Amino acid sequence: MFSRKIMILFLVVLALVWLAACQADDTVEESAQPETFVDSTGGLVDAPGDVVDSPESVAGSTESEVDSIAVSDTLSWNQTSWVGGPGFVRAENEAGYNFTAGLQRLEDGTLALSHLDAASATLNNDLNNDGYTDIIIANSGNYEFIDAPFAQIRLSNEDHTMPDAQIYWGGPDGYDQNRTTGIPGERPSSIAAMDLNLDGIIDLAMAGGGEFHPPYVNSRIYWGTQDGYQRDRFVSLPTNAATGTAVGDLNQDGYPDVVFANLGDYTFPFPPSLIYWGGADGYLADNRTELETHGVGGLVIHDMNGDGWLDIVFSNSAGFPPVDELLDYGQDYDWPDSYIYLGGLEGFSAERRIELPTKGATGVKVADFNKDGFPDIVFANAGSFALPPLPDTFVYWGSADGYSVDNRTDLATNGGSAVSVADLDQDGWLDLILSVTGTYLYVGKPDYPNSYVYWGGPDGFSDDNRLPLATEASQGSTVTDYNGDGILDILFSQLGDFGQPYRPVRIYEGTGDRANFYNSADYTTLPGQISYGSIIVGPPDGGDHMSHGSLAVPTYDNPDAYVAEGQLVSSAYATEAGQVWQEIGYQAEIPAGSSLMLVLDHLETSDKGQSWVENGRFELQDGQNSIPLADTEFNGTVRYRVLFSSDGSVTPVLQAISFQ
């Protein structure tokens, strides 16, 4: 009997040793953090180094990396706090989440729906929340026109590499050319910075200009994370040589919508511009609205008629009209009108738009220059970029009767590529900064044209009250207090002659002396590679922080109301063969007027690649509860999603969730 007990004890010890060895073998080594801003993986990553094609968007991250989590014979997968915030968390060897939209973290670490005005909370933040304003320069690099008469322009420059946009990080000593981060894009022409998924972190929408001819490249949305911006955290959205980006909540659901202005390939017919609608699923290629436009160079989102709904103003450039027609008609060519699309409950349509005459407009800004309570519009008219003389810039004055040619001021800028607006001399009147490129056919010959500051005042704008500033084919500008002296400075992006050495961003620092406010012989620079514009990301300083676009948040009737929908997407869990999840435990508060839906997914492989397939969904109940999983066949590489919904007056709260 005694020897039998010893034998049983020995077998128990042996079994325990064997079990420990199995658990050790099952441990997955923690994978390295991805590099910041290098080329995307281009698909789902099931394990480190294993890249496969992704046929569809995965939880708002079209080009996403699926995080594998270690498992053992005793399965346990818990999430009891979101103390890191509701955004992205990369989770290896621990429970974690991959993406949220429309959710906020409460003080106790639980998750709830965001308020309608959540996007505006980060509008005055810088990119890394260190209190210093950051600058992003949109570099296009040298691309090659394929059609005459412009093909010869860039043939002499054999460098057709695609440069990164550059973040210049602000600091106590200003900006340092060695303190930058590159953002891969598709020759971005415009960038917008705003919290797009309502997680409290700034995201970046980048208009992909590409080569300005088919095949067109996509534009991108980079999701901000607690660890900054990562190479695999972007959504790729189809556009057609996008030249402008504007962001605003157009349908007043709390989620910012992204508008990409499309130029096309400079020829008729032109592609429509696109509204990508924000929501709990992020941004999807099939959730968009097309608006008729004609080779757009710039856009603005603004409430133009005071009805409480945001409208969209497009500057239609029509690209480059046929040369023979230009030779016949010169600047009397029949340029298309620019458009104001009016927003409202019924959405946007051609039946609800205002058309204003322009001449190849590539830039537009909106502000109340004469302080009469009506928004005024400035269109920078570039004409053909080819045959001088180039057209004037138009200022349409707003009134109770709207806009008309009879209530317009023409400024002799000899073309204009973009416009910025700021009260530079702080006299209480907004001023205009007109970037002038000149002609592409004769760029820089014999001299580059000046750009201009038009000083504002009670009498409006005049060619007799302007300051010329030397630039080398400027295509856009931003305004900020660059050197921290309390006086606004101007950053002109420059194309140069499309050759090397590339022209830098030219920065005119304000002196405060109206008699010599900016001096063409006195400027500093930041490197640029055929830059079309820049954005300033930081607190308001009276400047104009965005080239070729705008940011806008509507006035909500009840900003403290909650968004109608939100979503939590977990990290992926690689369940081993033979191991089956048995039960889900959760704790939640679900008041009347709200709900929580749990969705289970598994990763399925086909000849088209990998995609998530739904296993089932369960409506969660208030309190602490459990759900049996024995019959769901929830195994393999799995994830869960929690869908939050509300009537706007209350929010459900997810406190904990656990898989066993």
Molecular structure report:
This protein has 660 residues and is mainly beta. It has three helices and 43 strands. The radius of gyration is 28 Å and the shape is elongated.
In short:
Helix content is 5%, strand content 37%. It is built from three helices and 43 strands.
| Poorly predicted residue ranges | 1-74, 145-157
| Main beta-sheet annotation | 6 strands, antiparallel
Q: Output mean pLDDT.
A: 83
Instruction: Quote the distance from N terminus to C terminus.
Output: 39 Å
Secondary structure category:
mainly beta
- H/I helix tally: 3
Shape: elongated
Query: How many β-strands, per DSSP?
Result: 43
Helical content stands at under 10%
Strand and helix layout:
Blueprint (H helix, E strand, L loop, with lengths): L1 H25 L16 E5 L2 E4 L23 E3 L17 E5 L1 E3 L5 E3 L20 E6 L12 H4 L9 E4 L11 E4 L4 E7 L8 E6 L9 E8 L2 E11 L3 E7 L8 E6 L10 E4 L11 E4 L4 E7 L8 E6 L6 H7 L8 E4 L11 E4 L4 E7 L8 E6 L11 E4 L11 E4 L6 E5 L8 E5 L14 E5 L11 E5 L3 E7 L8 E6 L10 E4 L15 E3 L4 E7 L11 E4 L12 E6 L2 E2 L8 E7 L4 E13 L2 E11 L3 E6 L8 E10 L6 E7 L1
Parallel strand pairs: 14-35
Antiparallel strand pairs: 1-2, 3-43, 4-36, 5-6, 6-43, 7-8, 7-34, 8-9, 10-11, 11-12, 12-13, 14-15, 15-16, 16-17, 18-19, 19-20, 20-21, 22-23, 23-24, 24-25, 26-27, 27-28, 28-29, 30-31, 31-32, 32-33, 36-42, 37-42, 38-41, 38-43, 39-40, 39-42
